[in-house]
Design brief:
Elements lengths: L24 E8 L7 H22 L3 E3 L18 E5 L14 H7 L8 E7 L10 E2 L13 E5 L13 H13 L10 E2 L2 E5 L45 E3 L2 E9 L2 E4 L8 E7 L3 E8 L3 E8 L7 E5 L4 E9 L2 E8 L2 E6 L4 E2 L4 E4 L4 E7 L3 E8 L7 E3 L3 E9 L1
Parallel strand pairs: 1-3, 1-4, 4-6, 10-16, 17-24
Antiparallel strand pairs: 2-9, 5-6, 7-8, 10-12, 11-13, 13-15, 14-16, 17-20, 18-19, 18-21, 21-23, 22-24
Helix pairs in contact: 1-3
């Protein structure tokens, strides 16, 4: 796996995201203490490999789910996880600062506070020292409904665990284990929660949430909730990680919107002027509102929308295509005359006195006032102002006033 980001190292989330089905996404960040060597160019492709490994392992365990990893459309990127959005953060302190506690997570939580949005969970690969000789990674939160400051998990690249470098398999297992913690595993009511190690499962050493990583273990060696009775796809009344908003619901289906006429579409999706084959989750509900341009009106939806109103809610359960149809709105104008004179319109339709109202299939109409002999035009009122040619681009009533010379 080759990461497509090249030499770019930024902490900020790259936009737009490739996955538009939900803004709840899991991002990766490489963090290194000040003055320490930056190994990101060597590790980036390994981190992308870890993400791919986690996604494939997860779907092998549950074909209907996988973490929704944040990916960015790097130019020319040919592989899904080569497009992984990986941030880089040069921390503010030297390595000794991260040795004050048994593990550096509290210091890291403080330094990273406010960096991540509320809908983002973040897997931080920390390339700095750790005092503990047994901790491979950690998170300070079981945050099934939260991202941002509470959605951070750590993989300790310099730990004493035998997990190898990113991409070798061990770091992917640690990352999946800690991400599951942050997604809410293992909840307190789980029947096989370890009595001496809370938030872990102790019914099998092959469970990914067992408290210890075996020598040489990888994700291929472990199972997502053995017997499905503790934290994933269980029948209990307690929290089930399978329901997390940070997981993609498979299968995904293509979603296409088009616009006929002149108008825009308002929705959470990048479909303002239409969109083609966006991949949306099975069961997802998407609300779209059709807004006509000036001089146009909404006529109807065609295709996969049963609504006759401008707002349509799509329930995704297969490939979906719909078109918002806009037609030109009639521009209705009326004219009143005081005194003696004539008002005509362009386009033709009003010649007042006589025809003093008209409906125009145009975005605007011009009104011209001409006084009769012995009279002069004194100015407009109503929808028109001044004393020259009046141009109207919306419906209204104009008043032309003529006075004797």
């Amino acid at each position: 796996m080759t990461w497509c980001g090249g030499s770019e190292e930024i902490p900020a989330d790259r936009v737009p995201a490739l996955d538009v089905a939900s803004s709840d996404q899991v991002r990766f960040l490489y963090a290194v203490p000040a003055s320490e060597p930056d190994h990101f160019p060597d590790y980036a492709s390994g981190i992308a490999t870890d993400a791919s490994w986690i996604a494939e392992w997860w779907q092998a365990q549950d074909p209907t789910r996988a973490p929704r990893f944040d990916r960015y459309p790097f130019p020319g990127c040919a592989t899904p996880f080569g497009a992984l959005d990986i941030g880089v953060k040069r921390l503010g302190f030297d390595r000794s600062t991260y040795l004050f506690g048994n593990t550096p997570s509290s210091q890291l939580d403080t330094e990273l506070r406010g960096l991540f949005t509320a809908n983002q969970k973040t897997i931080v690969y920390f390339d700095g020292p750790i005092r503990s000789r047994t901790v491979c990674g950690e998170t300070n939160y079981l945050a099934d409904g939260s991202g941002g400051d509470e959605g951070i998990v750590y993989v300790y690249l310099q730990s004493n665990c035998d997990v190898g470098l990113p991409g070798a398999g061990g770091t992917a297992e640690v990352a999946a284990h800690e991400l599951l913690h942050n997604l809410g595993a293992v909840p307190g009511f789980a029947p096989n929660e370890c009595p001496r190690s809370s938030a872990h499962a102790c019914d099998s050493t092959t469970d990914v949430m067992y408290p210890f990583v075996g020598d040489g273990s990888t994700l291929d060696s472990v199972v997502l909730d053995v017997n499905h009775d503790d934290y994933y796809a269980h029948d209990g009344a307690w929290w089930d990680v399978q329901d997390s908003d940070w997981l993609t619901r498979f299968p995904q289906f293509p979603f296409t919107l088009t616009v006929s006429g002149s108008g825009t579409l308002v929705s959470p999706l990048p479909c303002t002027n239409g969109c083609t084959e966006l991949q949306l989750d099975d069961g997802e509900s998407v609300s779209v509102r059709a807004v006509p341009s000036r001089g146009w009106k909404f006529a109807s939806w065609s295709g996969g929308c049963a609504s006759s109103a401008p707002r349509c809610t799509f329930e995704i359960g297969g490939p979906t295509t719909a078109t918002a149809v806009f037609v030109r709105a009639s521009l209705r104008i009326a004219v009143l005359i005081a005194g003696r004179g004539r008002v005509t319109s362009a386009p033709a339709g009003i010649s007042c006195p006589g025809r003093c109202a008209g409906a125009f299939a145009a975005t605007q109409a011009r009104l011209t006032a001409r006084a009769a002999a012995g009279w002069r035009f004194a100015g407009w009122g109503g929808a028109c102002t001044g004393s020259g040619v009046c141009t109207l681009d919306s419906a209204g009533s104009a008043r032309a006033r003529f006075v004797r010379r």
